[in-house]
Amino acid sequence: MDHFVYQDGVLCAEDVSVAEIAAQVGTPFYLYSSATLLRHYRLFDEALAGMDHLVCFAMKSLSNQAILQLLGEAGAGMDVVSGGEYARARAAGVPGERIVFSGVGKTRVEMRQALTGGIRQFNVESEPEMEALSAVAVELGKIAPITIRVNPDVDAKTHAKIATGKSENKFGIPIARAREVYAHAARLPGIEVIGIDVHIGSQLTDLAPFEAAYLKVAELTEQLRADGHTIKRLDLGGGLGIPYVQSNEAPPSPLDYGAMIKRTVGHLGCEIEIEPGRLISGNAGVLVSRAIYVKDGADRQFLILDAAMNDLIRPAMYDAHHDIVPVVQPEAGAERATYDIVGPVCESGDTFAKGRAMAQVAPGDLVVFRSAGAYGAVMASEYNSRPLIPEVLVHNDQFAVIRARPTFDEMIARDIIPAWL
Ligand code: LLP
Q: For residue 162, how far is its CA from the centre of ligand 1 (angstroms)?
């Protein structure tokens, strides 16, 4: 459920008309609903009620400072994967004890940054990383709390580019070698093993792969405890999918997911962490764009928008489907048309949808891409020298620009002309 609904024939974000925001901010822009973000965070939090737990927002999905502060103030932790994300989380007021550091390639500089600034734990992904972290911690006179990410070799049944839990993926250590690697970790002076981490992929629409992975983690917990390790925390990753197409078949809810967690690992008495990104931010955001032209091709119509692949890369990169709907609600029985929906960027990959049937659109009309809150703005670029688009946050009947559109001069001023030119 989200808070983007038609009111009196115009799409609103909570209680604000999208058309009104577009008139003030200009298109294209990203638009987020505070109520939806908070609702989704709380659904996870409530789903784990009764267990000692922390919901760490995977901020790679949406990392604007205002969003981090909103979720941080509601109690969320953050899952970070770079020094930049760590700095953003801290700048938004999230305390170190609520930040977990994931990723296969943490540098010593990033380790130092997090150890000095405060960290809940590192999710370590390899033995070389473990050794580096131990050395950095010893240098600083600290002990780094860690979990080790295991790769359970489970097929997440999602898009190949976002599956992470098969043995051929670069993530984690093979679960079959876990006991050996934990024994190695126990011998290192700068780290303290506190648990196990697992994350098998993103946009999972079925609980079965999660369940298979969590059962393996439960079994491993018992083995490692028998080997004498302290396993008191399980980080179960993110990955629960969202409905990109409105249909009767909704993916499992956070509540179903929480119940499955209780069923698979609840008996172990561990503190539970999860790292959802998309389910919190995805349907809490839309991309608002304006039609520039409708053009007749040889055998099709092109709807040319002012948003492009540099603003929203998901269709080009993952063949992702985003519903595209008009801001002014079409009257019942209004004409429909079929379009290839494209942006102005100079390559054919700049296609949002092919043969999409929808209410007829005229040049100047506003449309929104639904479910664009996750992996939208954060994956944008300035390709074709198109400035990064603004982000706007709605709260009840108010809205605020939370990232402004840079001017051309600001964009150009980042380049430096060397003295010899
Ligand atoms: N934890 C870890 C260690 C991750 O690698 C990820 C996502 C998450 C949590 C959050 O997963 P989520 O709950 O958002 O599914 N750009 C792609 C998605 C990449 C996901 C990468 N890792 C997309 O647009 O679909």
A: 7
